[in-house]
Amino acid sequence: MRELDCYARTCVHNDKCACKKDCIDVNRSQDVAECSDYMPVGAVSYSYETAEERCFGATNHYHTNIHCTVNSCKYFKNERCNAHHVTINVDQIKEPGKVKCETYIQDNE
Hints:
The protein is 4% helix and 38% strand. It has one helix at residues 51-54, and strands at residues 3-6, 14-15, 18-19, 23-29, 32-35, 65-68, 76-77, 80-81, 85-91, 95-101.
């Protein structure tokens, strides 16, 4: 994974629109691809397994791998995302519980 921009700023893994979690899971929920690792700030239990903690002095240039089960996406390959740039977004007003993968594109095989 080269770049991942995340605009879910209320997630504990978000660091200046970068995801500091080592690996995220993207799953299909109805008609959208969603990040299932979203955890709101202030959550009592969550994993601190992040690139930042393994690499002392890390910046917001994280390398987040994306495990994906949305096999209808054109970037899906062997349960991984092979897009060069991924954008994760959230609409706090219309759908506050959904953190969507905006890079999802229906595969027309």
